[in-house]
Amino acid sequence: MTTAQEQRAVPDPSAVDLTDPQTFLDVDPHAMWRRFREESPVHWQPVNGSRMPGFWAVTKYADVVDIYRNNKEFTSERGNVLVTLLQGEDSASRKMLAVTDGPRHREIRNLMLKSFSPRVLEPVVAGIHRRTLELVELALEHGELDFVTDVADHIPINTIGDLMDIPAADRERLVEWNTQTLSRHSSEDSALDEVMARNEILLYFSELAAKRRRNPGEDVISALATATVDGKPLSEDEIVFNCYSLILGGDESSRMSSIGGLIAFSEHPEQWRRLKSREVGADSATEEVMRWTTPAMHFGRRALVDVPVRDQVVRAGDVVTLWNSSANFDEDVFADPYTFDIARTPNKHVAFGHGPHFCLGAFLGRVHVNAMVEALRTRVARVELTGPPQRLYSNFVYGYSGLPVKLTAEPAA
Ligand code: HEM
Q1: Which Pfam families does this entry report, sorted A to Z (predicted)?
Q2: Is 294 helix (H, G, I), strand (E, B) or coil?
Q3: Closest ligand 1 atom, CA of 163?
């Protein structure tokens, strides 16, 4: 139940600006989303100075899942995140999987799934566990460190980097561009930095894809560069935009879940004990870390026709945003949602989305979080935060650019 005092501290939905990254730093997100779900679950937010007059914010789990599933009445082709949806279009439309619908989406998705299915990735899993363990062991030698820059930043980028055969020397640059594209370190970084980072990544892959076309190898870029659908090769734009989406998807969200997981364990000693004592398995803990951290706070769609949602009618052409960070804490679906419970079951969260655009890299994302949970469980005795976590400035990624911690090793067996 929400107390009167909490209610006062949380702005009512009409006073919240979901386009402003600062909102997500200023407000307690759980309390904010609870008010949305209770008072205005299908909420219209007007926007000034944009090509769109405003957008819907949908916050109940059942509605979020319904709209994710409904690619007949809602399209991803005019953008799938707030920033592009409000511009009225996405320059990657019909070139990048996430912003393509219909038969072309199915064809390209099937093609890409060949590189990302659990069966194909099985040989990569042991390597992810090994790399994570090595980094956690190195961190333990230092004791005090920044968990973001010293540990988490080096794991998923190297997995996706290996799969795409990206030269090792280029990977650090890509991590920095990734962070700038989806979010900012602070309000002082400009929106121009985001655009420039995106262009740097596109240019980088355009050069690499051209090389792989001439001289293909066993990697995912070569697979895209040499694939044919209905006897025709993919266009250069399709190859480059899909590489862009793999490097962003492959790195940023997995990194943020692992970091958020470490914070969650440091703040919930009882759950840390249950993990350490093996009372609860790492797979179950991984799912709860995914729900608890929900790194992709929202995705979105454009309505193609008028669609009633609860007591509102979403009109053809309207922008609809689906807030995973609310749906994953909906009291109607999750018992005691604000409790971090690593044994939670069922746990059908929407951290990876739902329906036809369900995350292509969900298996890989889970493996990364699982490897971190296992490494912490087996090697680390105690986690202490030694300074405040530095949150990213974003209305899309919930995550961190810095996390000072002290890790204490388990005594050698
Ligand atoms: C789609 C989240 C890891 C690549 C999505 C969507 C979500 C999501 C919510 C749905 C987007 C929509 O409906 O518009 C996450 C999270 C991850 C993660 C939380 C990690 C913890 C990955 C990884 C990869 C990846 C490791 C790459 C290998 C993609 C791609 C799509 C996608 C290509 C588009 C799929 C389609 O449109 O059919 N992701 N993702 N993601 N993700 Fe992930």
Answers
A1: p450 (PF00067)
A2: coil
A3: 28
The response to whether residue 353 sits with its C-beta less than 6 Å from ligand 1 reads yes
Please state the separation of Cα 267 from the chain's center in Å: 22
Mean pLDDT computed over 290-306 = 98
User: Whose CA is closest to 337, among 60, 64, 67, 66?
Assistant: 60
Percentages helix, strand, coil for the chain (3-state, rounded to 5) are 55, 15, 30
Q: Angle of helix 236-267 relative to helix 156-164, nearest 10 degrees? A: 160
Q: How far is the CA of 365 from the centre of ligand 1 (A)?
A: 9
- 163 with 219: CB under 8 angstroms? yes
**Ligand 1 in reach of 351 Cβ (< 6 A):** yes
The CA 364 to ligand 1 mean position distance, Å, reads 10
Per DSSP, the three-state class of 380 is strand
**Any ligand 1 atom below 6 A from CB of 80:** yes
15 C-alpha vs ligand 1 centroid, how far in Å?
A: 31
At position 199, the amino acid (one-letter code) is N
Place of tokens 């769109």: 52
Q: Is the CB of 246 under 6 A from ligand 1?
A: yes
Contact 314, 322 (CB under 8 A): no
Distance 360 CA to ligand 1 centre (A): 5
In this prediction the pTM is: 0.95
The DSSP secondary structure of 70-91, one letter per residue, reads -TTTEESTT-SSHHHHHHT--T
Confidence (pLDDT) at 413: 60
Q: What is the pLDDT of residue 250?
A: 87
pLDDT exceeding 70 applies to what percent of the chain? 96
Q: How many CA within 13 A on the CB side of residue 349?
A: 27
List 385's β-bridge partners, or say none: 405
**CA-CA distance, 346 to 157, in Å (whole number)?**
31
Is the CB of 97 inside a 6 Å radius of any atom of ligand 1? yes
Q: What is the pLDDT of residues 357-406, one digit of tens each?
A: 999 999 999 999 999 999 999 999 999 999 999 999 999 999 999 999 99
Contacts of 143 (CB under 8 A, 6+ apart): 406, 407, 408
Nearest residue to 47 via CA among 89, 88, 86 = 86
Amino acid at residue number 83 = V
Nearest 5°: phi and psi at 41?
-65, -25
